Amino acid sequence: MSKAPNNFTQRVLSGVQPTGGLHLGNYLGAIKNFVPLQEQYESLFCVVDLHAITTWQDPSDLISKKCEVAAAFIASGINPDKSIIFNQSQVPEHTQLSWVLNCVARMGWLNRMTQFKDKAGKNKENVSVGLFTYPVLMAADILLYKATHVPVGEDQKQHLELTRDIALKFNNDFNKEVFPLPEPIIMKKAARIMSLRDASKKMSKSDTSDFSRISLTDSNEEIEKKIKKAKTDALPIPDSNRSLEDMPEAKNLLTIFSACEEEDFEKTFDKFKGKNFSELKRDLTEVLINKIGPIRDEMKKLNNDKKYLIQILNRGSQKAQKISIKVLKEVYEVTGLTL
Ligand code: TRP
Hints:
By secondary structure, the protein is mainly alpha-helical. It is 52% helix and 7% strand. 42% of the residues are buried. Bound molecules: tryptophan (TRP). Tryptophan binds at residues 13-15, 17, 48, 51, 138, 141-142, 150, 156.
């Protein structure tokens, strides 16, 4: 693998939480964009169960949720022989490094994290401490492998900035360039997929309406029904891009279309400008079934063989640990923790 200018191996790391109910937003906004990275970088893709338990998770189905993420990775085209697909909790170095980084990160930095504020809301006194230090664990995930690049969507940008701040302070405090400052890979084609019922909200598994999202387990009929029911704007699709700004529903459906087709948004817009929503919906249904159908079928097949998925995760975790042990050792040495 090639080296970055500062001599760090070009390495990508990203994580997906096993909270169940993966949907189109997870696929188009994250997982799909990981796939081409494995050609260019040494790549690690992590099932971050320790992040998931910052809010309560039912122990009896956590394993199957972890398997679901592994299945989605593989069904989407991440090759487990090329990339390291692994499980965070099986590599204890994540929590070990996380503690050291907790002692580097400042309260003021964490107090500024908008995701914590959004998630805690009015309930600030009653959420887990883990939810507060969540971004430090994320920094540990990244720095434990000296990852140089992290594919991020809009909502994780601030956490990556924090990771860079922690890396820089660590290097300064201990007077050694232990960690690279990881660069974001802004996923250009990564679509921000919004709810099908209200395009001002992100598509989410916690929305009470099942019609707000397309799940990666939806049948072709369900996909068709959901697109048919998807909210539309009052007017047909406009002729100019500018008027599209006031039409969030049209924008969302066109974004989904362009992401599935891997074509520029402009090109998709050109196809449908001035047309009725019914035409867009008809074509979008077809495109979605072609894109999601095979992934859904493959995920189902993989999910029927949990043993295989667990084996992939365990094998990946061993490979990951080979790297992480060395980095943690270096961290213990420079911080004076080694006996
Ligand atoms: N916080 C990320 C999310 O919810 C998941 C995550 C955990 C992650 N560790 C990471 C993403 C490291 C990138 C790199 O989407």
